[in-house]
Amino acid sequence: LEIARAKKLLAKGEDVDAVLEALSRGLTQKMLHGTLAELRAGDAEVRAQTAQTVSRLFLRSQAKPPHGL
Q1: Is 53 among the domain residues?
Q2: Angle (deg, nearest 10), helices 44-63 and 16-40
Q3: Of all residues in the chain, what percent carry a pLDDT higher than 70?
Q4: How far, in Å, CA of 21 to CA of 53, rounded?
Q5: Residue 68 lies in a domain
Q6: pLDDT digits over 15-46, tens only?
């Protein structure tokens, strides 16, 4: 759906950078939707544990190169 929307905008002559920005934003929102919904669900303890796990997985991977590189 996101790629089809981007192709349609490009065919209409929209600015390539604006279309790519919208495409990346749309894809990112789709990927994060489940995680964000999980963070909002459950009680405070579950939310805190989930937030800690997400931070550990994603923020740690940005700080260090992948294992073996």
Answers
A1: yes
A2: 140
A3: 86
A4: 28
A5: no
A6: 999 999 999 999 999 988 887 887 788 788 88
